[in-house]
Amino acid sequence: MTNATDHQRHQMYSSSLANGMLVLNSFKVDEPALSNGELSIRTGLSKASISRITYTLCELGFLSYAPQERRYRLGSATLTIGYPLLGSLWIRQFARPFMQELANRSRGSVSLGLRDRSNMVYIETCRGHDAIAFRPDIGGVLPICSTAMGRAWLAGVPPELREQTLEYIRIEQPEVWTRHQQALQTSLSDYATQGFCISSGDWQQDVHAVAVPMRLAIDGETLVFNCGVRARLLSTKSLQDDFGPRLVQMVRKIEADYGAALRQNTEAARP
Predict the structure, then answer these.
(1) What residues contact residue 217 under an 8 Å CB cut-off, 6+ apart?
(2) In this predicted model, what pLDDT tens digit does every residue of 198-247 receive, in sequence order?
(3) 3-state SS, one letter per residue, for 51-120
(4) Which of 39, 183, 192, 214 has CA 20 to 30 A from 9's CA?
(5) What is the per-residue pLDDT across 168-194, written as a single tens digit (0 to 9) for each?
């Protein structure tokens, strides 16, 4: 992984496309509507550039404009871009019954995620609770360094990719690296001995989580399962002694059954 400056110097780098993606990435769950001025501040682009980009994105359906608010929202075309990825990940449907069983047992949420640069993104989730304040959802983003899912991803990928990712975080997010460096190193050591990583309130203070990476690559990606539970319902010791091993067992079972199903489908497709 190279840093942003290295990418920008490459002769194949398209600044116009990158600026459009910057605009789209500016919208968040708690900030679904933004004005041109707000987008200019968030991206560092001039208001004139923002106006051209938002007009183009509206024409293509990636943004919609509300005249009364004088603000933009993400358009339906953003969903059509992501759907082929989600639809092609058959592991989501395959793993769902296993995930729901553990979610019910833990009274928490069991999710499946993959990496996006220095973050993890949920691609499937099952809940065993009704807590409105704790509802992971598909498309939700969480940081690598402070979460069990992110730490498990780092533990599960080849050393070269791990170091590239950590170097990116050191350069682009030095305060994050300083804050979580020690806990991250502890998590990596824990994975080597226990097969799972834990985050006890490091990301959300009232949530404890445990995570396990898949050893079976899916479309070339290392996917990670996690189990998150409200801290008042489950202690760190319970994660360590009970649900960590349960999650490892669940992931190994999914890997074995999914791999067998893939082999069976491949053999059935042969002439």
Answers:
(1) none
(2) 998 888 888 899 999 999 999 999 999 999 998 887 777 888 888 999 99
(3) HHHHHHHHHCCCEEEECCCCEEEECCHHHHHHHHHHHHCCHHHHHHHHHHHHHHHHCCEEEEEEEECCEE
(4) 39
(5) 999 989 999 999 999 999 999 999 999
Three-state DSSP at 175 gives helix
Distance from C-alpha of 222 to C-alpha of 219, rounded to nearest angstrom: 9
User: Are 43 and 23 spatial neighbours (Cβ–Cβ below 8 Å)?
Assistant: yes
What pTM was estimated for this model as a whole?
A: 0.86
* Predicted local distance difference test score (pLDDT) of residue 246: 96
> Looking at residue 30, what is its pLDDT?
86
Alpha-carbon distances, residue 184 vs 1, 145, 150, 246, 262 (angstroms): 20, 6, 9, 22, 34
Q: Where are the alpha helices (DSSP H) in 113-173?
A: 148-156, 159-172
**Phi then psi dihedrals of residue 135, to 5 deg:** -135, 85
**H or E stretch at 6:** helix 4-9
